[in-house]
Amino acid sequence: MGTGESQFTIERIYWERIFLNFEIFADCPGDPEFYLEGPGGRKTGLEAVKGKDSFIISMNMACAFEGSFLENGRWRLTAKSGEDNAEVKVCAITANAAYKLDELSRIFKYAEDQMAYNVSFGVVSEDEKSLEFYMDSYFMTENRRWKRRRYVKEVRRPKEKVKRFFMYGAVVLIRIYYHVLYAFIPKKGNRIMFMSETKDFLWGNLKYIDARIKERGLDSRFTLTYSYRSAAGKHQGLRDIPGWIKVVTKIAAQDYIFIDDYAPVLGFFNLGKKTKLIQVWHAGEGFKSVGYSRFGKEGSPFPEGSCHRKYTHVITASERLIKVFQEVFPLDREAFYPVGMPRLDGFLDRKNIESFKEGFFRDYEYLKGRKLILFAPTYRGSEQKEAYYDYSMIDLKRIYDFCRKEGYAFLVKMHPFVK
After folding, report:
1. DSSP codes, 197-223
2. Quick one: pLDDT at residue 237?
């Protein structure tokens, strides 16, 4: 690897939430190839978009290397020109950009702030004409006994240890049960399951996909299975074991699984390679922070083990929303299908609209002739069981005075998680 004056110079580094972006000037013939190289000979190619005077690399840190976070250690950006047998060189960084590196360090906390993922930057040369750039990536654990040097790793409290032991034991048993079933049930490519762990009925995108399959007569070709229950966000005890066994049994038999929300059970084991897990997220996304867009914030998912890491495919409402969904579900771009939101078909159907309006004004006759304002906020809080909404943030008196004066009605449709 070349260590002399580089043909490739980083001119700007900036963050967009969990996306780390580089603007790199390339003084070479042809389109260069960029790489990320780390400890132990790890290496992966990077996709670069050609701009006016530079190349732009946008790296989703949640899937930066082999579909996950970077391993602990030092990483470098390298590149080579488009010429045959060109030498791979370490990317340098301009002095102006290097001065700002300390400000760009990030600490993403998770596990109730007991753990963190740290990303920092630096250079290995004092010569401003050849400042070789590097990036350090480390996962860290809180050390409450930091004054005692012999304590390298924080020890959890006894109560937490016991709870963790039983939880881990349950997960191991579920994992073994799934893999034994998966091995004995043949996969013929004709089993589809619609699954929800947040609703006890079929709804939204799942309902419309199911209806479309039947409308096209594909239910004669595929065996359709359904699993829906209100389990996510609720305390699970011994009496819930039959429910877990039932849902894991169904999962093990499937070739394709469609889900529309968070499903914690899928984080307990890795699905067999012949099973495709398709996320048809119920929300349009981009309006609230969920999944790995919350990494480092309150309610952050763990770097590994989350069900959000298990999807093989995700549908999006449009091509432009792919990057937004990549932040939530850390997958390569090829895993996203911008086919639209199935449940929006009903919103665009004139007959459905007129039928709903007729029923709505029959139930709320006193709203006829008034202008309607619908307020439908998402919940606040890090998870379902902590969901709330602070109504004190709304000036209801002012809204009331406005509606009374202008002939409006202010309707509130609260998120179902808020009781």
Report:
1. SS-SS--HHHHHHHHHHHHTTGGGTSE
2. 61
